[in-house]
Write a structure and sequence with these properties.
It contains 1 helix and 10 strands. It has 148 residues and is α+β, with helices and mostly antiparallel strands. The protein has one domain (2-146): Jelly Rolls, CATH 2.60.120. The radius of gyration is 18 Å and the shape is globular. The termini are far apart.
Length: 148
Amino acid sequence: MRKIIFTVILAISILNVWGQSEQFINFNQKLKQNFNDKGYKLASETMGKIVDTLPLVSDTLMLEADTYYNIVATSDNCSFCIVNLYFVDSENNMFPLDFEVIENYDDRFNYRIYKTLYRKYDVGRFVLMIKSDIPYDMDLLVYKKMLP
Protein backbone atom coordinates (compact mmCIF):
# COMPACT_ATOMS: atom_id res chain seq x y z
CA MET A 1 0.00 0.00 0.00
CA ARG A 2 2.83 2.40 0.85
CA LYS A 3 4.46 1.61 -2.48
CA ILE A 4 1.31 2.56 -4.37
CA ILE A 5 0.91 5.85 -2.45
CA PHE A 6 4.58 6.70 -3.01
CA THR A 7 4.28 5.92 -6.73
CA VAL A 8 1.18 8.10 -7.10
CA ILE A 9 2.84 11.04 -5.28
CA LEU A 10 5.99 10.64 -7.38
CA ALA A 11 3.97 10.58 -10.62
CA ILE A 12 2.04 13.72 -9.65
CA SER A 13 5.29 15.51 -8.74
CA ILE A 14 6.90 14.60 -12.06
CA LEU A 15 3.86 15.80 -14.00
CA ASN A 16 3.90 19.10 -12.08
CA VAL A 17 7.57 19.67 -12.90
CA TRP A 18 6.96 19.01 -16.61
CA GLY A 19 3.93 21.31 -16.56
CA GLN A 20 5.96 24.09 -15.00
CA SER A 21 8.65 23.74 -17.64
CA GLU A 22 6.04 23.92 -20.41
CA GLN A 23 4.49 27.04 -18.86
CA PHE A 24 7.94 28.59 -18.50
CA ILE A 25 8.67 27.87 -22.17
CA ASN A 26 5.36 29.51 -23.13
CA PHE A 27 6.23 32.55 -20.98
CA ASN A 28 9.60 32.83 -22.75
CA GLN A 29 7.98 32.51 -26.18
CA LYS A 30 5.63 35.43 -25.43
CA LEU A 31 8.56 37.54 -24.19
CA LYS A 32 10.62 36.70 -27.30
CA GLN A 33 7.71 37.66 -29.53
CA ASN A 34 7.43 40.98 -27.68
CA PHE A 35 11.08 41.82 -28.41
CA ASN A 36 10.76 40.67 -32.04
CA ASP A 37 7.74 42.95 -32.46
CA LYS A 38 9.88 45.88 -31.26
CA GLY A 39 12.50 45.18 -33.94
CA TYR A 40 15.12 43.42 -31.82
CA LYS A 41 17.00 40.39 -33.16
CA LEU A 42 17.93 37.48 -30.91
CA ALA A 43 21.76 37.33 -30.82
CA SER A 44 22.11 34.56 -28.22
CA GLU A 45 19.93 32.28 -26.11
CA THR A 46 21.15 30.11 -23.25
CA MET A 47 18.72 27.99 -21.23
CA GLY A 48 19.25 25.75 -18.25
CA LYS A 49 19.18 25.20 -14.54
CA ILE A 50 21.21 27.63 -12.48
CA VAL A 51 22.52 27.36 -8.92
CA ASP A 52 25.22 29.25 -7.00
CA THR A 53 27.97 26.88 -8.16
CA LEU A 54 26.80 26.67 -11.80
CA PRO A 55 26.33 29.97 -13.68
CA LEU A 56 24.53 30.42 -16.98
CA VAL A 57 26.92 31.69 -19.71
CA SER A 58 25.95 33.11 -23.10
CA ASP A 59 27.72 32.31 -26.34
CA THR A 60 30.76 34.40 -27.16
CA LEU A 61 29.38 37.44 -28.94
CA MET A 62 30.88 39.98 -31.30
CA LEU A 63 29.20 43.14 -30.03
CA GLU A 64 28.73 45.64 -32.83
CA ALA A 65 29.30 49.39 -32.64
CA ASP A 66 26.29 51.74 -32.49
CA THR A 67 23.95 48.92 -31.47
CA TYR A 68 21.44 48.66 -28.64
CA TYR A 69 21.62 45.46 -26.60
CA ASN A 70 19.03 44.16 -24.17
CA ILE A 71 20.16 41.30 -21.97
CA VAL A 72 17.11 39.52 -20.58
CA ALA A 73 17.16 36.96 -17.77
CA THR A 74 13.90 35.07 -17.27
CA SER A 75 13.27 32.74 -14.35
CA ASP A 76 10.74 30.27 -13.04
CA ASN A 77 9.86 30.52 -9.31
CA CYS A 78 12.81 32.80 -8.56
CA SER A 79 11.06 36.11 -7.85
CA PHE A 80 13.06 36.92 -4.74
CA CYS A 81 16.40 35.44 -5.78
CA ILE A 82 19.52 37.55 -5.87
CA VAL A 83 20.60 37.44 -9.51
CA ASN A 84 23.82 39.02 -10.76
CA LEU A 85 24.81 39.72 -14.35
CA TYR A 86 28.40 40.11 -15.56
CA PHE A 87 30.15 40.80 -18.84
CA VAL A 88 33.38 38.88 -19.48
CA ASP A 89 35.52 40.44 -22.20
CA SER A 90 37.98 38.70 -24.52
CA GLU A 91 40.77 39.06 -21.94
CA ASN A 92 38.62 37.37 -19.24
CA ASN A 93 38.02 40.58 -17.29
CA MET A 94 34.67 40.38 -15.49
CA PHE A 95 32.50 43.50 -15.15
CA PRO A 96 29.29 43.62 -13.07
CA LEU A 97 26.15 44.94 -14.77
CA ASP A 98 23.00 46.18 -13.02
CA PHE A 99 19.51 45.23 -14.17
CA GLU A 100 17.34 48.24 -14.99
CA VAL A 101 13.96 46.52 -15.18
CA ILE A 102 12.62 43.73 -12.98
CA GLU A 103 9.07 42.50 -13.65
CA ASN A 104 7.13 39.71 -11.93
CA TYR A 105 4.16 37.80 -13.35
CA ASP A 106 1.77 35.64 -11.33
CA ASP A 107 4.28 35.50 -8.44
CA ARG A 108 6.03 32.78 -10.41
CA PHE A 109 7.69 34.02 -13.57
CA ASN A 110 9.83 37.09 -13.84
CA TYR A 111 12.32 38.76 -16.06
CA ARG A 112 15.15 41.20 -15.57
CA ILE A 113 16.55 43.47 -18.29
CA TYR A 114 19.91 45.17 -18.65
CA LYS A 115 19.95 47.78 -21.46
CA THR A 116 23.07 49.19 -23.06
CA LEU A 117 24.30 50.97 -26.17
CA TYR A 118 27.68 49.86 -27.49
CA ARG A 119 29.61 52.62 -29.27
CA LYS A 120 32.58 50.41 -30.21
CA TYR A 121 33.17 46.83 -31.27
CA ASP A 122 33.78 44.33 -28.48
CA VAL A 123 33.91 40.57 -27.95
CA GLY A 124 32.71 38.76 -24.84
CA ARG A 125 30.12 36.74 -22.98
CA PHE A 126 27.36 37.53 -20.53
CA VAL A 127 27.33 35.49 -17.32
CA LEU A 128 24.32 35.07 -15.04
CA MET A 129 24.92 34.06 -11.41
CA ILE A 130 22.46 33.39 -8.61
CA LYS A 131 22.80 33.17 -4.84
CA SER A 132 20.80 30.04 -4.09
CA ASP A 133 21.38 26.43 -3.12
CA ILE A 134 18.19 25.48 -4.96
CA PRO A 135 18.42 25.10 -8.77
CA TYR A 136 16.07 27.26 -10.85
CA ASP A 137 15.14 27.19 -14.54
CA MET A 138 16.46 30.32 -16.21
CA ASP A 139 16.90 31.66 -19.71
CA LEU A 140 19.53 34.22 -20.74
CA LEU A 141 18.56 36.10 -23.91
CA VAL A 142 20.68 38.69 -25.68
CA TYR A 143 18.84 40.95 -28.14
CA LYS A 144 20.35 43.55 -30.43
CA LYS A 145 18.99 46.42 -32.50
CA MET A 146 21.07 48.56 -34.84
CA LEU A 147 20.78 52.35 -34.63
CA PRO A 148 18.89 53.86 -37.59
